[in-house]
């Protein structure tokens, strides 16, 4: 068997090595995609109206990056719907971007809500941790603040 070295790891010849880029691209395809979703977040669209938006997601990905989601899903394996209060659907979708893309775009309209959500769910993205500590001028874009690892 012939071994090939790739990124300081050895793989047998013919072994399909999925690079981080390929893995990220594969995961990002499921962002807000109900395909294979096993959790749906219910977010009230307008407070007090009783109108809700259902936002699909994937437990394995959320649990891998958030110990709060991990323990919640572990304790309540049958949970498929999860009500979230105190945020807008738009801010929650941006919060989910951290899990699927490891990046977030913060604007004056969503920044506070996204940061509160990330702290509430103990989101451990390498993007988010330095982002909450300081938002540098070099990360500012015309649409807001874009952080990416």
From TrEMBL:
Source superkingdom: Eukaryota
Matching InterPro entries: BTB-POZ/Galectin-3-binding (IPR051481), BTB/POZ_dom (IPR000210), SKP1/BTB/POZ_sf (IPR011333)
Domain BTB: 37-108
UniProt xrefs under Pfam families: BTB (PF00651)
Coiled coil segments of this chain: none
Listed name of the protein: BTB/POZ domain-containing protein 6-A
Organism: Pseudolycoriella hygida
Name of encoding gene: btbd6a_3
């Amino acid at each position: 068997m012939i071994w090939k070295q790739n990124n300081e790891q050895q793989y047998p010849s013919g072994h399909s090595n999925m690079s981080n880029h390929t893995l990220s691209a594969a995961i990002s395809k499921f962002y807000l995609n109900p395909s294979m979703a096993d959790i749906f977040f219910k977010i009230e669209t307008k407070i007090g109206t009783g109108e809700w938006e259902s936002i699909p997601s994937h437990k394995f990905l959320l649990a891998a990056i958030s110990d709060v989601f991990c323990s919640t899903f572990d304790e309540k394996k049958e949970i498929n719907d999860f009500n979230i209060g105190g945020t807008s659907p738009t801010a929650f979708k941006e919060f989910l971007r951290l899990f699927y893309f490891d990046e977030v775009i913060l604007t004056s309209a969503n920044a506070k809500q996204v940061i509160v959500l990330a702290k509430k769910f103990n989101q451990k993205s390498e993007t988010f941790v330095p982002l909450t500590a300081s938002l540098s001028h070099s990360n500012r874009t015309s649409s807001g603040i874009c952080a990416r690892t």
